[in-house]
């Protein structure tokens, strides 16, 4: 991979655009400006909030890589170019970050091998496949150029079990190919799309995924696994509907969902427990409220709206979750950034944290 191919100069010098007018500025990161000996560690630091890069498999000490991501509605699309490596997402990391999104990968060059708890998957060039950030996974890949469409489960409240059932094999059908072509076309369009067009792009994306995924689901799903996934999806929806209730907790959830405490705890064990999941959802909703420049409510009132009645405890929990304070987020939103400020990596004064950006969708 030549440096001139991985990071055009204009991508590093693009000016900020006033929110609501013109193009959506992507979250961006590259290692090109760093010394070769520091590049892989900088890339690891950028990625580790979502996935751990365990070993570079490149031919030399350098690791010239580029990442860009555009967020719109319940979706975010990343375009990544990076040398070969090994990587993993562990159960401890899943518990720590509580991210719960689907990923639709579309490899434009190179290949990848994945190992989940349920399957070993070989992903060839050009064939999309689905993973979820609630899955334990490790793998290795060749030098690759790929797209990844992150999808919030809120976009498909009724289709979750069907999408989950498609995770263990590449989408090699004609409809899977159509989905891959759409994601590539979307990546090209987002570079020149205005913010006013983003709601329509989100709706078109939602409709296309529903049309392509539903017909390609296996004819015979594992009955028990399907029931478990459907039950988990329904409980998540109940949690979202009751986030403002001070009575929301394991006992209340068991009654609303009609499940036992042991079932509830087993379903949410990958997320660090049901209480941790509820708190993360409340913090995520508070984050969305505080990142809205039009929302001028006092931070304490926003916190109380989502069940945090101790301002100091809210601030500590918020900082643990996002690595910055509610006040910093409010100030950043008021200054014109739609997304949150993000952790800086060595040599990247303008970089923003991967996981924090994903929590916006």
Explain the overall architecture.
This protein is α+β, with helices and mostly antiparallel strands. It has two domains: 3-220, Jelly Rolls, CATH 2.60.120; 223-335, Homeodomain-like (Arc Repressor Mutant, subunit A), CATH 1.10.10.60. The protein has 15 helices and eleven strands. It has helices at residues 3-6, 9-12, 36-47, 91-97, 160-165, 174-190, 198-213, 223-241, 250-257, 261-268, 274-290, 299-305, 311-322, 326-335, 354-358; strands spanning 27-30, 52-56, 66-72, 75-82, 85-89, 101-109, 112-116, 120-123, 129-132, 137-141, 144-152. Strands 1-3-4-11-6-9 form a six-stranded antiparallel β-sheet. Strands 2-5-10-7-8 form a five-stranded antiparallel β-sheet. A hairpin with a 3-residue loop joins strand 7 (112-116) and strand 8 (120-123). It is globular and about 55 Å long. The two termini are 31 Å apart.
Q: What are the key terms here?
A:
361 residues, alpha+beta, Jelly Rolls, Arc Repressor Mutant, subunit A, 2 domains, six-stranded antiparallel sheet, five-stranded antiparallel sheet, 11 strands, globular
């Amino acid at each position: 991979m030549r440096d001139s191919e991985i990071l055009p100069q204009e991508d590093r010098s693009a000016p900020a655009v006033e929110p609501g007018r013109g193009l959506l500025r992507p979250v961006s990161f590259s290692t090109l400006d760093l010394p070769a000996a520091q590049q892989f560690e900088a890339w690891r630091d950028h990625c580790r909030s979502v996935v751990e890069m365990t070993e570079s498999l490149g031919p030399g000490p350098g690791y010239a890589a580029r990442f860009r991501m555009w967020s719109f509605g319940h979706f975010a699309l990343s375009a990544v170019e990076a040398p070969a490596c090994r990587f993993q997402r562990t159960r401890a990391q899943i518990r720590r970050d509580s991210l719960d999104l689907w990923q639709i990968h579309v490899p434009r060059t190179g290949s990848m091998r994945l190992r989940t708890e349920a399957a070993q998957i070989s992903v060839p060039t050009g064939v999309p496949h689905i993973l979820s950030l609630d899955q334990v996974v490790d793998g290795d890949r060749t030098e690759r150029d790929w797209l990844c469409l992150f999808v919030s489960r809120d976009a498909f409240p009724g289709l979750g079990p069907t999408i989950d059932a498609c995770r263990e094999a590449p989408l090699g059908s004609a409809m899977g190919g159509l989905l891959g072509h759409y994601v590539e076309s979307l990546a090209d369009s987002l570079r020149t799309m205005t913010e006013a067009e983003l709601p329509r792009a989100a709706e078109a994306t939602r409709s296309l995924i529903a049309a392509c995924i539903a017909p390609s689901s296996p004819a015979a799903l594992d009955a028990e696994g399907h029931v478990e996934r459907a039950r988990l999806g329904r409980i998540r929806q109940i949690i979202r509907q009751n986030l403002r209730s001070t009575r929301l907790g394991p006992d209340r959830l068991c009654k609303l969902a009609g499940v036992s405490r042991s079932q509830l705890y087993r379903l949410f064990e990958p997320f660090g427990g049901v209480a941790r999941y509820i708190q993360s959802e409340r913090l995520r909703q508070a984050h969305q409220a505080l990142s809205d420049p039009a929302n001028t409510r006092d931070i304490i009132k926003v916190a109380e709206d989502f069940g945090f009645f101790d301002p100091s405890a809210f601030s500590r929990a918020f900082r643990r979750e996002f690595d910055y304070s509610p006040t910093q987020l409010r100030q950043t939103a008021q200054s014109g950034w739609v997304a949150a400020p993000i952790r800086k990596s060595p040599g990247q004064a303008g970089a923003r944290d991967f996981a924090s950006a994903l929590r916006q969708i």
